[in-house]
Amino acid sequence: MEKRLQGKVYKFWDNVNSDIIIPGRYLIFIEPDKLAEHAFEMLGEGFPSKLREFDILVAGRNFGCGSAREQAVTAIIGLGIKAVVACSFARTFYRNAINAGLPIVECPELYAAVAEGDLIQIDLAGGEIHHNGGTYLFPKFPDSMRHLLEVGGLAEYLKAQIQMACERPPAAFGGSPPHGRITK
After folding, report:
1. Distance CA 43, CA 12 (A)
2. What is the pTM for the complete model shown?
3. Is a pLDDT exceeding 80 seen at residue 172?
4. CB–CB of 87/61 below 8 Å?
């Protein structure tokens, strides 16, 4: 994950729910590209293709509300979206996004200032969004969440942990015990 993201904005409204993001009939798919073909399609013919022209979604309050489907985040990733900035997120969507490695930022002040097609820059490490000469602050991610985003999400983090555990010699043969614990 890049620590600084830059791109063109598509602006949504309040309460964009998971059924708008990806209709339930497509939950048979798990592949990001396949889900992206149908992302936001209920907003009009060709809408998924239109969104591929943008890099960052900006939305009002409660983005991702509705059912707790992970495919909503996967569909957004499949569109090539680098990040989502909103006034607020549904809690389950927020957690699903972090687990999938999609940077999401709560920054209510940006919403009124940005328009569709504007360019913004997000400094994830610094907790800042830059737009038209202005700086908008957001809470920095805790180290644990930042690390999940950096490695591409929870699955990638777990793969790396398993790989490290497999490469470490067992403590009985001179290797260090996992997590520094002493075992008997």
Report:
1. 11
2. 0.88
3. no
4. yes
